[in-house]
Amino acid sequence: MASSHTGYYELNGLDISQFSTLLFESAHSLQWQMTATSANSFDIHIPKTAWKPGGIIVVTVENGLATLLSKNSDALLGGSKRNAGNLETFINALNEQRGLNTPETLTEKFNTAVAKQEAYEKDLAERMQSNNLTGTEKMRLGVGGRKVTYTLVGINVFVFIMMVVAGAGFVNFTVASLIKWGGNIRFLTANGDWFRLITNVFQHGGVIHLLFNMYALISVGIFLEPLLGKWRYLTVYLACGILASLTSIWWSGERVSVGASGAIFGLYGVFLALLTTNHLEKSVRNSLLQSIGVFVLYNLVYGMKGGIDNAAHIGGLVSGFVFGYVYYYFFISKKDNASASMIITAVATIVITALVLPTLKDDSAKFQHTVDRFIQQEGIATKPLDGVRSDTFSIQNAEQLNTVSLPIWRSLKASMDSTGNYNLSVSDKKRRDILAKYAGLRLRQTELLIKRENEKSFDYDNELQQINKDIEKTLDVSE
């Protein structure tokens, strides 16, 4: 539970405007921040650092008495003691500033602050009309809203609901369903289904996967969308999603990849890049850089465990980081041209995809067709061996070995050898080697059986026995 501590402070004749100025001066002297929540209540924010948890002091003024409630938002060991210390520090600052400022001085500072605020608001209104706001102002004011972020969330949720209604599952979706709905897997994506590079970005493997990604999207989107503008934000989201998907099948294309996390990591990459520049005020940069840096690092480390497509995360993060620096140094820091930056983002993504995707061509589908034919023909080729005794090699249908089995095994051996230049996954290459070896053993077995029957000789029995053992071993390995 959150802990708190309460204190009191007499205004001693100060009006609310004078006391609010005293609060501001005291907070400023401690490098804390003050915000007014109503005419007679204020929040004093104690910054969070790597070593201190931060906190808040809520000040309420009534009948010449200020009530100060110091609290933190987390259940921390020694929280009450810490809050009492924060309160004591702030009350000491109030007393110090009270000694440095007369009521007249406080009134003068208040009027000056009001005049500055009015001038700032007028200037802000004019700069809003000319779209000449600072990065911090855009983010703080939420210029342009967060419509794209919430629309993206809506699309992801809609696709998830449609998959559930279609019977794909709920907690977890089947691999077949993910592929059917546009999941990203190399042998399909690299062989014509390029659209899977983007459709998989709007799919999720289950409800937990969806909820976590949507939380992460909203967390970064509420800051970054106003900062970039809605159309540039959408462009970089889609671009990073595509490049993340491309990285995924380049690194490990044997499994189905789905989820918005690659695109979301791209947004975090853009934000991290901007937070390392002067685009935002230093105080804003420091607090956001710390929290976002920890979030990204934690998720990358967590992504090292099995079942998580960390390649997509890294691909999205790196591409977003690059785009972020391009935006700042070539556009934002100069006269910003959002349209030009969007065109560069789109062109770069298309060019990279067009160059990389052909190198990832996968012949798994063609190989599977060869395997299916192999299995079908194998049954016909081994039919003459039904009832054969391995110790005597007594053949009931010797003629069929020559007319049926021998041509089939030669054909199957040749077809399997022809797949030697196919672009295949590691598992498919292993299966190809096993089948090629198996076909070779069966071909040699058939040739020896034909010789044995034609010559009525037992000279080949030892070699046949060894081949028979090798076939059994090969079949065991294939299982």
Describe the structure.
The chain folds into three domains: 4-132, Kinase associated domain 1, KA1 (TATA-Binding Protein), CATH 3.30.310; 141-360, Up-down Bundle (Rhomboid-like fold), CATH 1.20.1540; 364-478. The chain contains 18 helices and five strands. The chain has helices at 16-29, 79-100, 103-129, 135-141, 147-165, 175-180, 186-189, 196-199, 207-228, 230-251, 261-275, 282-302, 310-332, 338-356, 364-381, 398-417, 426-455, 461-478; strands spanning 4-10, 33-38, 41-46, 55-62, 65-71. Strands 1-5-4-3-2 form a five-stranded antiparallel beta sheet, covered by helices on one side. Helix 5 packs antiparallel against helix 9 and helix 10 (230-251) runs parallel beside helix 14 (338-356). The longest helix is centred in the last third of the chain and has 30 residues, at 426-455. The relative contact order is 0.06.
Short description:
The chain has 18 helices and five strands. The protein has helices at residues 16-29, 79-100, 103-129, 135-141, 147-165, 175-180, 186-189, 196-199, 207-228, 230-251, 261-275, 282-302, 310-332, 338-356, 364-381, 398-417, 426-455, 461-478; strands spanning 4-10, 33-38, 41-46, 55-62, 65-71. Strand 2 and strand 3 form a beta hairpin.
